[in-house]
Amino acid sequence: MNFYLETMRLGLWNLRLHLLRSTLTSLGIILGVAAVILMVSIGEGNKQAALRDIRELGANNIIVRSQKPPESTSFGSQRRSFLVKYGIVDDDLNRIKTFIPEAQQIIPLKTVGSEVSYGPKRIMSQTFGTLPELGELLNLEVESGGRYLSSEDQELRRPVAVIGHRVAEQFFRLENPIGKEMRIDRNVFTIVGVLNPVGLSGGAGGALVGRDLNLDVHIPLATAEMVFGDIVVRRVSGSFSGQEIRFSEIYVMVESSEDVIATSQRIQKIMDVGHADRGDIELIVPWELLENVKRTTFAMNLLLTSIAAISLLVGGIGIMNIMLASVIERTREIGIRRALGATRKHIIAQFLVETGALSAVGGVLGIILGVSLSIAVARVLPWLLQQPAIKNLIETEIAFETQITPWSIVVSFLVASMTGLIFGIYPAIVASKQDPIVALRHE
């Protein structure tokens, strides 16, 4: 025990004598460990953000969506008036209800209106007629003081609306929107609730739904059918385009995520009955995307970690280079120790202690640096991207998160320590093979 303690004391003392050289030698390890932790935290943070967005759509949900068929957009470059009829119809909804009896919820959404306005302020409409059960199915939360659609709103065909968070920000910055009247096209609706922010405006979830859900407006389905009918008209520079769509989306909720894939395949067959050759129906399965995101982010994390690990390799080579130079520099010291009875094992142990200490201390400093950078990046980067000089140059609507994982800290430290020891073995063996007589004569 005394031998090992004395060896450690000598090794650490020698590193302290050459503090600047020791610091520069361990710099590769420090940066390598910090890079691994930072890369993994960025990859894991983005992964969790994407998974959270997808889960907000409901991992047990299947979305049947109407989409404009390709041939309906091929009208040449000349502007003209036209009406396109496509998408989900009542027969499709009835078939799903009949042949998917195990579904816990089947909720249709209907796109209505071309414009939403309050006073002089106007935005393009993202208004949907739907059922009150949609709030529970999508876990929609309403801000304090308001409410979501109710069964009475549906039965009595009330002209009420629940607006998204960004709609409230644009129309009602300095006033409470509850009870205020807004217009959808020329029809007046009373606002009864404001949705809490939904994290789907960007990232995987936003790409999945194809819109910012914070700009949605929800009204009772019965009111939408009575007031707007099935035709949605978009006016542009004197011309108009019309779309006749019965339902824009249907949400189907199953009991277990294990049944999602099988149920989605059955729904696809049901929808193929009337739409196989038209290409106007799309099936979105959040659970399937969830699994794809997990696989993709795992591969990305592996790639980022491998790239960052190159720094550890460079750091190990640096340690070996410095230790080889140290062997030449300390040849006389090695000769004296061998002459006084030190064995090859003692010399190897001394050099391994030094390389091990370099890599271990570098690993600890790398962990501190990596964790600090991960926290700083998550907090500073969003602020930095909002600065006017940067905001004018690049697209800044980015969701950026980091998440520090314990396994990345443990693995990077162990790899750093092992790198130092592995790359220190060769210099230690070279030192131990020094002939005592030749070493004593070395100047």
Task: Describe the overall structure.
This protein is an alpha+beta fold and 443 residues long. The protein has 2 domains: 202 residues, no CATH class; 146 residues, no CATH class. 55% of the residues lie in helices and 16% in strands. A hairpin with a 2-residue loop joins strand 4 and strand 5. The protein is elongated.
Which secondary structure elements does this structure contain, and how are they paired or packed?
Elements lengths: L1 H16 L1 H38 L4 E6 L15 E4 L4 H10 L5 E8 L2 E4 L2 E4 L2 E4 L2 H5 L13 H6 L3 E4 L1 H7 L9 E4 L2 E8 L8 H7 L7 E4 H8 L2 E6 L2 E6 L4 E5 L6 H16 L5 E4 L1 H44 L1 H9 L4 H42 L2 H4 L14 H27 L3 H6 L2
Parallel strand pairs: 2-12, 6-10, 7-9
Antiparallel strand pairs: 1-13, 1-14, 3-6, 3-13, 4-5, 4-8, 7-10, 8-9, 11-12
Question: Which structural traits does this protein have?
Answer:
14 strands, 11-stranded mixed sheet, 2 domains, alpha+beta, 15 helices, 443 residues, 3-stranded mixed sheet
| SS summary, helix count | 15
> What is the mean pLDDT?
80
Sum up the overall morphology in one term. elongated
Give the strand tally: 14
Helix content: 55-70%
Number of domains: 2
